[in-house]
């Protein structure tokens, strides 16, 4: 197999995916935009909006698969309509056009559960798109272009929509590492009222799903929700209380007193991952208790390294 291109390789999911693919013997070329990682013959610091640089890379390598994880606006504090559209729509379409011209075997697109219109029940892949924030809207817009290229031009598109991915190395501003780091330091944990329910899935389980998308015969043209489903769903308040209990930290550290966040925060965002179970044979292997235990230990062992690697 020719090299696999992974974009967004410095993020939580991208780093784990690249490591997993390399361990399995794949030749991987990774792209990152903001990272301390040094460039070499297989790791390139390239902004996907730089069309010329991306075209040069495609001339240098004959890729068999493109796995597109890069995105803008994931963190609400950096959300910008202009940047989200430039990266998640225009650059995504440009990347897919290059992949189509090169004749790749698969174009794996990693979207988000935030593309869906908020519902009061678990969401399957037939749930209407209708994102509650700019990030989700731009990711959905990018997917609509890719889907059109699949239907009209034959782009071998495979789409995954992970829900609330967590694990070692996540950005310290995110809920799980923020709670762990504040609790370890004995500092106050300032949060929303905590009633919103999320579907937490360990990063290694998401990587397993993406790897299945490389070869599953029925995957082309399909969308797969990746989450633990309603049985493992938790409110933010319950998630934080669980972490504190596991760390032996006092509950008085928590201040559930902020009524809203900077972006629209849907009250319920939980997947129905049945299609991935049935068609890919994928199920999460790491339950919430084990995943949190591993994440807590990683931050306790080296919190500075974990924060810097995000």
Question: What's the quick description here?
Answer:
The protein has 310 residues and is of the alpha/beta class. It has 10 helices and 14 strands.
Question: Topology, please?
Answer:
Layout: E1 4-7, H1 12-23, E2 28-32, E3 43-45, H2 51-60, E4 65-68, H3 81-102, E5 106-110, H4 134-153, E6 157-162, E7 164-166, H5 175-185, E8 189-192, E9 197-198, E10 200-202, H6 203-212, E11 223-226, E12 234-235, H7 236-247, E13 254-258, E14 268-269, H8 274-280, H9 288-301, H10 303-309
Parallel strand pairs: 1-2, 1-4, 2-3, 4-5, 5-6, 6-11, 7-10, 8-13, 9-14
Antiparallel strand pairs: 9-12
Order of adjacent strands in the largest pleated sheet:
3-2-1-4-5-6-11
H and E order: EHEEHEHEHEEHEEEHEEHEEHHH
Rg is 19 Å
Mean pLDDT: 92
Q: Helix amount, in percent?
A: 40-55%
Tell the overall outline.
globular
User: In percent, how much strand structure appears in the residues?
Assistant: 15-25%
Structure characterization notes:
This protein has 310 residues and is α/β, with parallel strands linked by helices. Helices cover 40% and strands 17% of the residues. The protein contains 10 helices and 14 strands. The protein has a 7-stranded parallel β-sheet with strand order 3-2-1-4-5-6-11, with helices on both faces. Strands 12-9-14 form a 3-stranded mixed β-sheet. β5, α4 and β6 (157-162) form a beta-alpha-beta unit. The radius of gyration is 19 Å and the shape is globular.
